[in-house]
UniProtKB/TrEMBL annotation:
This is Oxidoreductase, short chain dehydrogenase/reductase family. Keywords: Oxidoreductase. It comes from the Bacteria. GO terms for molecular function: oxidoreductase activity, acting on the CH-OH group of donors, NAD or NADP as acceptor. Pfam families: adh_short (PF00106). Belongs to the short-chain dehydrogenases/reductases (SDR) family. InterPro entries: NAD(P)-bd_dom_sf, Sc_DH/Rdtase_CS, SDR_fam.
Length: 250
């Protein structure tokens, strides 16, 4: 049975992916900062599979290394890495951007993804096997007004995904990105710093993707035969045609 490590498993796409993987009896290493949610996941999935939780902030290099090195022996051979932890912070024109928001997006979405990968990849290289899924975004394919630094962070994920695939090709490690459009999760609540009304408005007037839609696709991707690597997927709600074209019913 495969072992999967999911970052950002406490909410949204990561949590839904954990649910799909648990139903498929993948062994799970679930990561996030919110300890009580990790405890809930442990209780929920333990009847289905082996679950281990890791509580760390992906921005903290030492904490990432310590947490991943502490993984129990029977789970150390990670077959699947889902680099999912991330968020947008703010939606401001560049001239009004908050430097702390910029730091958060670059430190979490880009550097955090790298820190986790740095700890997991050597084992995959040694075993000549593994599958890495990087969660990018339509914001990594297009830039939209006020998206500036979030878009930059997801364009970086796109580049890292391509670079990882090239460098790890010789070891038989599969690397691919899933790039969603609008998915109704806690994403907008984080982006708008707890402003629920503004966050809910993002998903009103059309049918956004659900976290489960992306989890279903991730599960499909990681269950293909070994010779199949789904390298790069853009997944949009039907109402969305691009980063800026969204058909809302008013
Ligand atoms: P959520 O806000 O629901 O989930 C984000 C997850 O990331 C949480 O589990 C959170 O856990 C974790 N996380 C955030 N910051 C940190 C940190 N510093 N250290 C460790 N974990 C962290 O959003 P989504 O599920 O929507 O987002 C998941 C991924 O999907 C992100 O990379 C996002 O950019 C991407 N995405 C989302 C889209 C959307 O429309 N929702 C569209 C395209 C891409 P905790 O707070 O417990 O640490
Ligand atoms: C999340 C989707 O359009 O808010 O990456 O950037 S969007």
């Amino acid at each position: 049975m495969k072992t999967a490590l999911i970052t950002g498993a406490t909410s949204g796409i990561g949590r839904a992916t954990a649910t799909y993987f648990a139903k498929n009896h993948f062994r799970l290493i679930l990561c996030g900062r919110r300890e009580e949610r990790l405890a809930e996941l442990q209780d929920e999935f333990s009847p289905l599979t082996r679950v281990h939780t890791l509580n760390f902030d992906v921005r903290d290099k030492e904490a990432v290394a310590e947490a991943i090195q502490s993984i129990p022996e029977d789970l150390k051979n990670i077959d699947i890495l889902i680099n999912n932890a991330g968020n947008a912070h703010g939606l401001d024109p560049i001239e009004n951007g908050d430097v702390d928001d910029w730091d958060a997006m670059l430190d979490i979405n880009v550097k955090g993804l790298l820190y986790v990968s740095k700890e997991v990849i050597p084992g995959m290289v040694e075993r000549r096997s593994g599958h890495i899924i990087n969660i990018g975004s339509i914001a990594g394919k297009e830039v939209y007004p006020n998206g500036n630094v979030y878009c930059a962070s997801k364009h970086a994920v796109d580049a890292i995904n391509q670079g990882m695939r090239m460098d790890l090709n010789q070891y038989g490690i599969r690397v691919g990105a899933i790039n969603p459009g609008l998915v109704a999760t806690e994403f907008s609540e984080v982006r708008f710093k707890g402003d629920r009304e503004r966050a809910e408005n993002v998903y009103k007037g059309y049918a956004p993707l659900k976290a489960e839609d992306i989890a279903d696709i991730i599960t499909f991707v990681v269950t293909r035969p070994y010779h199949v690597n789904i390298a790069d997927l853009l997944v949009l709600p039907t109402a969305q045609a691009s980063a800026t074209i969204l058909h809302k019913k008013v």
